[in-house]
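Render this sequence as a predicted structure.
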Amino acid sequence: MSAATERILCIDPALRNTGWAVLEVAGKSTALIECGIVRNAPKLLPSGCLVAIRENLSDVIGRYGPSVCAIESTIYVQSFKTAIALGTARGAALIAAAERGLAIYEYAPREVKNAAVGRGSADKQQVAFMIRSMLRLRETPPADVADAIAVGLAHVQAMEANRALQSERRRI
């Protein structure tokens, strides 16, 4: 990878189905390198799910060598039980990234949907459809994977905005 190329580990955390993707950004081009879902069986105890999330994502980091991690931030949910489960899944994913020394960036769900679809209230099918179109994929990815890719696209947009701001500051 050249200095202008960056690999991003993208994560949509959930206790049972954590979506992940590795994107490679080179200049204005973004490509999907690999993606998948850490699937945990309904009968697996939550503690086992957390270990599986951390181990699987650590393996992904080792295989694909991303330099940064983009993860969806905590969402508002109706149930405290759901919020706790999502929070623990996020924690397992964050530990995997932190253990490997990745810089971690968090993006709100509305920001993620806006990056993929252009509006923060888009549904999962719209996000998946747009991800397929934007990255010229042959098939529409599963919703958990599409959401992870959308997190990565939110990071790419934030990087581009930051570069533009830095460039503007240098001209002043």
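Summary. The chain has a mean pLDDT of 90. The first helix runs from residue 46 to 64.
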